[in-house]
């Protein structure tokens, strides 16, 4: 999701796009102070990158609570998908659709 969006939003070299993608996808607790500054620059440079980054963090938070109530997690995932689709960002919409297919398949199998 991040790579195509970063490539679309940033008009920089391929190396810079690759670096930005890596920085934005890194686990926040493992992010060095310099990278945190870079993340701030990236999300300030593009509202779409900011939306995608914030949604990525929310999804990561949902996944981190996997051991909790399954129904709450499913509802959180559904809400995340709705929010991702509402951004109008195609990469997020595609990912939300793919994520929904997993939750639908699991619900049918369960």
Keywords for this structure?
80% helix; 6 helices; globular; single chain; 110 residues; mainly alpha
Structural write-up:
The chain is mostly helical and 110 residues long. The protein has six helices and no strands.
Given helix and strand content, the structural type is mainly alpha
Radius of gyration, in Å, reads: 15 Å
Kindly state the number of beta strands.
0
Gap between N and C termini: 28 Å
Tally the helices: what do you get?
Answer: 6
Biggest sheet record = none
Mean pLDDT: 84
Helix and strand arrangement:
Layout: H1 2-9, H2 14-25, H3 33-45, H4 47-64, H5 70-86, H6 90-109
Give a brief rundown of this model.
The protein has 110 residues and is mostly helical.
């Amino acid at each position: 999701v991040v790579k195509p969006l970063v490539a679309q939003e940033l008009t920089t070299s391929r190396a810079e796009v690759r670096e930005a993608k890596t920085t934005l996808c890194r686990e926040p607790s493992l992010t060095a102070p310099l990278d945190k500054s870079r993340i701030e620059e990236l999300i300030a440079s593009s509202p779409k990158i900011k939306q995608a980054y914030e949604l990525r963090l929310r999804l990561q938070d949902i996944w981190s609570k996997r051991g909790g109530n399954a129904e709450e997690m499913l509802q959180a995932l559904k809400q995340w998908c709705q929010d991702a689709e509402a951004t109008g960002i195609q990469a997020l919409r595609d990912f939300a659709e793919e994520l929904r297919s997993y939750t639908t398949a699991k619900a049918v199998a369960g």
